[in-house]
Amino acid sequence: MGNFKQALRSIDAFPRAEDHLLQKTKSGAFVSIVGLVIMATLFVHELTYYLSTYTVHQMSVDLKRGETLPIHINMTFPSLPCDVLSVDAIDMSGKHEVDLDTNIWKLRLNHNGQIIGTEYLNDLVEKGHVTHGHDDHKDHHEESDHKFKIHNLDEEAEEMIKKVKHAMANGEGCRVYGVLDVQRVAGNFHISVHGLNIFVAQKIFEGSSHVNVSHIIHDLSFGPKYPGIENPLDGTSRILHGSSGTFKYYIKAYHSPHPFPALEGIVPTEYKYISKEVLPTNQFSVTEYFSPIHEHDRAWPAVYFLYDLSPITVTIREERRSFLHFITRLCAVLGGTFALTGMLDRWMYRLVEALKKPNSRNIVR
Question: Could you give the C-alpha distances from 118 to 81, 105, 108, 109, 171, in angstroms and in order?
């Protein structure tokens, strides 16, 4: 039994010296304090690193069917009153709504940008607007010729013209925001004065080149936002001075993170939180084109958003590092700091002793 205890003591990696053999020094105390501060700092850093999450990207084929695509719009038109603005949408399936006002608000703004009135529109009826084409190279009002004559406008149209001119003279603008739910196919939507009759528009603006479609995009997205998402059009400001034209935003290519290739169109995305909650949304990137309109052009200005959809879904999953990984890193940094401060203490002790020896020799002499 005694031999076993002796053998057990021989493998002790942490032998202890007698207390009377230990010498405490001021340099050792200083190094100990510094070491404790460093270890506490590293512990907090490692704990924060462990509690934080990171994301993993995966790709798969998009299998969704029959779902709608939500388009979140929040835009300001500082030079156009709400009465002349309409939101139109058309997709590749041939579905087309004029003044598509599903869950859309129009806020009247004064010249200082303050809200002076609101209007909530929630129906899909064309509201008496005449049909029109959407090709920039065609007059979108040419089918209304048999309904109106330029010198024979009814009282309602005359009243609207007077109201809009008064609003423009006062510098009124309009903020359009809300959600459009469109079919999950390629298409476009645009905000313009296309809802007006051609003769009413001519009376108000005296030509398409005088329609100022200056705009500020506060938010344009295709679904809710998740941590880290960047919508490229948020905060975009396009202000025209003394000119007019059509803006086209082509939502055609999304540059996915390395090592995935670039994906075409709006990319369906699922964000999976650490709590297992799933947030469905979409990512996109955009290119921009501006086409100026001159005095005698028949096209009317508008702000177009043309989009396509990618057949690939990106899944972004939040994950947390394992507890064993945390313990391993913690042991490494704390053990390394303890060993380093021990070495530093020995070096400082030897340095102090080396400085003391010459002084003691001088005193003996």
Answer: 12, 7, 6, 9, 17
Looking at residues 193-221, what average pLDDT do you find? 89
Q: Which residues contact 64 (CB under 8 A, 6 or more apart)?
A: 184, 268, 313
Say if CB 291 and CB 240 are below 8 A apart.
no
d(CA 189, CA 283): 17
| Beta pairing partners, 89 | 97, 189
CA distances from 354 to 73, 358, 360 (A): 76, 8, 11
Alpha helix ranges (H) inside 73-210 = 155-169, 198-205
| Residue 210 token pair | 């005088």
Beta strand 287-292 with 253-254: parallel, antiparallel or unpaired? unpaired
Instruction: Report which residue type is found at 36.
Output: L
Sign of CA dihedral 92, 93, 94, 99: negative
Q: Residues 187, 49: contact at Cβ < 8 Å?
A: no
CA distance 214 to 145: 29
* Residue where the block lists tokens 């029109």: 132
Q: Which residues contact 272 (CB under 8 A, 6 or more apart)?
A: 278, 279, 315, 316, 317, 318
Q: Are the CB atoms for 55 and 198 separated by under 8 Å?
A: no
Structure-token pair, residue 4: 């076993």
- Interval 155-173: pLDDT, tens: 778 888 888 889 888 889 9
